[in-house]
Design a protein that fits this description.
Order of helices and strands of chain B: HHHHHHHH
CATH architecture of the largest domain in chain A: Orthogonal Bundle
Shape of chain A: elongated
Structural class of chain B: mainly alpha
CATH superfamily of the largest domain in chain A: Winged helix-like DNA-binding domain superfamily/Winged helix DNA-binding domain
Structural class of chain A: mainly alpha
Number of helices of chain A: 11
Radius of gyration of chain A: 19 Å
Radius of gyration of chain B: 43 Å
Number of helices of chain B: 8
Oligomer: heterodimer
Number of strands of chain A: 0
CATH topology of the largest domain in chain A: Arc Repressor Mutant, subunit A
Distance between the termini of chain B: 121 Å
Largest sheet of chain A: none
């Protein structure tokens, strides 16, 4: 009876988060084939530890912590070098927000983002995958999990300043990718620069 | 706050992070700088569109059924499949038997059965109309069985 009550409570908390958790893993994992295994392990571990969860506290952050940990472990176990990942020195050189503020093509992108975004679903997915794992995690926790900086810092066990700089870097990187994509496919309206 | 400072803090402003004082100062600048106001609006629009693109949040029902079944949080999916299989199997058997009966009826026309039915119907009508005397009456199943057995044997002996 106690176990049944525990699983019912757990499922009640978990159900509204299934979509975000799935999307988070789908984006973060190197191999999407392992999605089911990772989710299964994460849910099993979270359920095992559910007795330690204090009702009324942040279940979303709690389950995301389990899921993130499982996904990162899986990625480490099946480690592959990310061909498109930025090198650290490249990241450092471009990480300041104002590095791309004056790029003319970015201005074009900002004026008509739909012209590019409507054509590059897969490209955005690749752009996210091309970030370092740590940057991906910050970006996805923010975008998919709707977490605030403080919550992301707690989940990833990093200072809040690190979250801020990583998130800013991800945004710069994604914008650069979109500009490149738009330029390559002639999607920008050059006449309006 | 000037344009450069306010734009450097766009992340925080967009994400509603950091202190209220910063947001107030940025808001003050945006109120007097239409270029920055437009820039902020464009950045936020692009960000919302990116988020919409990245954050596909509808869960895959089959995937979660399997995940929860494997973690013993739901009844295992195979059980449901077994039920479906057994139900559809029973339906298939019933349909097969019906088809077999129809085919057999076509292959071997059952004249004797039809004759027996006609005799029984006629006898029943005669009995109900009082034209046929009641040969046996009982409330005991055993007595009825014995009577029918005796009747059958006597008919066989007569033939």
């Amino acid at each position: 009876m106690k176990d049944r009550d525990k699983s019912e409570r757990f499922l009640r908390h978990l159900e509204p988060l299934q979509g975000p958790l799935e999307a988070y893993c789908r984006r973060l994992l190197h191999e999407v084939d392992s999605l089911e295994d990772v989710l299964q392990s994460a849910v099993a571990n979270a359920f095992r530890d559910f007795d330690q969860y204090a009702e009324g506290t942040n279940f979303r952050a709690w389950i995301f912590k389990h899921t993130h940990s499982e996904a990162m472990n899986w990625n480490r176990k099946h480690q592959r070098t990310q061909a498109a990942a930025l090198r650290e020195d490249e990241v450092a050189a471009k990480e300041t927000w104002d590095a791309i503020l004056d790029e003319p093509l970015l201005k074009v992108l900002l004026e008509a983002p739909g012209a590019v975004l409507d054509h590059c679903d897969a490209s955005i997915a690749l752009a996210v995958k091309s970030l370092s794992l740590e940057d991906q995690a910050v970006s996805l926790l923010h975008v998919v999990g709707d977490f605030k900086y403080r919550e992301i810092a707690d989940i990833l066990h990093v200072p809040i300043g690190t979250v801020m700089s990583r998130l800013a870097r991800c945004r710069v990187r994604l914008r650069q990718r979109l500009v490149e994509y738009g330029e390559r496919h002639g999607l920008h309206r050059h006449g309006e620069i | 706050m000037n344009c450069r400072e306010s734009r450097q803090h766009w992340n925080l402003y967009h994400d509603s992070e950091k202190d209220a004082g910063l947001h107030f100062r940025i808001g003050e600048h945006l109120a007097v700088c239409p270029q920055c106001a437009e820039w902020f609006q464009q950045q936020s629009r692009l960000e919302y569109m990116l988020v919409e693109n990245i954050a596909v949040r509808r869960p895959t029902a089959e995937l979660w059924d399997r995940v929860l079944a494997q973690t013993q949080l739901l009844k295992p999916v195979p059980a449901r499949r077994w039920f479906l299989f057994s139900f559809s199997g029973a339906l298939a058997c019933a349909a097969g038997i019906l088809i077999a009966i129809v085919l057999l009826r076509h292959a071997f026309p059952s004249q004797p059965i039809s004759d027996l039915t006609a005799i029984t119907t006629t006898f029943h009508h005669r009995l109900a109309g009082g034209d046929e005397p009641l040969q046996f009456r009982s409330r005991s199943d055993l007595e009825v069985d014995n009577y029918l057995l005796w009747k059958t044997w006597s008919m066989q002996l007569t033939n």
